[in-house]
Amino acid sequence: MQSRRPAPFNVVSGDLEGTTWALPEGAIARLGKGIARGPKLALPPGGVYFAAQTRIGLWWYEMSSKLPIALWETERGLIASADFSPDGEWIAIANWDGVLKVMDVQSGECIARMDRTEAQNIYAHVVFSPDHKWIAIANRDGNVEVLDVHQGVCIARMDRGKRDTESNDVAHLEFSPDSKLLAATVNNPKVYSFRDGERKLINPNTEGTQTYVWHPETGEAIVKFAGRNFIFSPDSRLIAGACPDETLSKTEAADSVYNFISVWEIATGERFAYLTEHSKWGHRIVFSPCGLFLASSASSGEDGEEKILRVWELRNGVEKMVYTDSGKFSKEPFYSPEGVLLAAVDREDTIEIWNMEHREKLHTLESHPLSVYANWFKKFPQRAIADKKTEIGDGHTSLTLREFVCYPDPVLFLPDGATLATKGYRMGVVLWDVERKQAQKTLLADKRISSFTVLPCGNMLAASIQDENVTVWDAEKSGEPIAEFTEAEQAHLIWKTAFAPTGDRLAVGSREGTIYLYDFNCQERLKPLIGHTDFIWSVSFSPDGKRLVSSSSDKTSKLWDTASGEQIGTFPLDDSRTLMGVAFSPCGSIIATAMFGGLHLWCAETLTTLLEIPQPQTQKPYALAFSPCGKYLASGTWWRREEGMEKMAIRLWDVATGEEITTFWGHPTDVQSLAFSPDNTLLASGSHDCTILLWDLKPFIDA
What we know:
This protein has 703 residues and is mostly beta strands.
């Protein structure tokens, strides 16, 4: 099957990486591709192209060159999920606003559109039925629906029964091969609330992970069992899934390893087989083409590193073959169309294809375990082998998660203005070359970073907050941390942290309202700041490090003396509100705050209002940054789905007069961080869309 080349929307000649594709007016570059939590891939049958859904749009890539070839759906962005029709002719694309489009791949024409905005859907899954008639969707509340592609209407909502909580817990969604059934694995996770410093379980009666099979036209549940990693038999008569040990109690089973296998006859709702030989976590299950056999792989051994593969004869539920020497064999078994059992060995730099029955290696495919090719292979293994007798592209590592990994909160320029620093998505600190508009390197790449800072001298510090542990690193060094602290178990530390510009202290907020202070130069825990009674929303040091502003979900905001740990004052707000953003002016004399309702400039000594700038209710200010000269203030917008905003506003203000100088419109969701370049010529905006936009300020202010 030949892949259809996608319509080349938004391609800019000469820009092979897509840095300048579909840029908003006033922006000169986009850093990052706009995805979080790794690329979610839509994989067509042909394997020549693939699509990655991101928060700025749908990126199309060519498999061989690993380069982008188109960028779709940028008008709104926030792509939640996508899937190809079985023949690869259409692609279904859903965004966070509940809009689902079915588009022709070659022309880019919209074939059908369904607006599910009344249900406030953010789709976790979009799946075509094999006969092209239906699309199944799962939204952020864990509700599963079936939509008629041609009529553009919802025909059924799947019945999950009564639930204590609704959450985005659908882990796997798939039609049966004959399109007459729909199955989903739902996690039913334990949900906790944090109030008054207590961690409380909201849904103590949760069933844990379950797999449902429904009639797609009626939503009626046919079979339900405790299990995951399900697969239908080729004739759609059976469904198999990994399940827990049924001798355990309900609570124990919900938290246990799913190492056994249940096989159910769907028409009768009866269990056909219960296979208990695997001792560790079950990974992959696959039926033979004839439907008479089942192959399964799981971890084995004390450390779980060895992989063991078993083959079962389903007629009598007995084990036919065990491949115990499968330390070298992958956890990815599959059958050829002729019924030969094969397996993929996912090594560090290659995928090996083995004939399990003959114990013979058939092919070695150059790839990386996180690569696009590996994902495509798992979805279309037979086609991968048929097409793959030569190397992909130039034989180098295929596109990996690294290209997409960026979480720009905060975003900071280094003193020379040539380098921009952002947080990697959870791991490391990414340095970007501003002139070349590309990533240079990642510092502390193996460390889970909660926050970092760039000191006036150019040194970089990073902090990791995990449970009750606080670790501080010199970002330029990958060795031992420079400081480590541990709080009591009841101290629920959170990611709201701030480094003092003096380079010696760190403030860490908590769920219960306490702010913990650490002097990491002296390895000393300082007096905590006690006064808030709820989740700490923001913390910010003054330029000299002697004062700190905090804001909490208790709707109060306070100014503290960091040396004594005493409260200096409370911001005199006309009604109780939480400060969404806080910034000190470079000289420390002005405090800018952003809250629902507007911007305020305060005297840092007296906390009296210097200037108030009202904002439209539909545009909630959030991120703030002063220019290095102190004459200008930039503010970013908080996204509220119900307001229907397509792009977020970034406003530039004159500090002396409160006059709005200009407004940029660019990110599709929250602007979380802003930073001026040292020479005032650029503004960098970091967003929850996981990109940084660089804006040219020269036409608007004196550099």
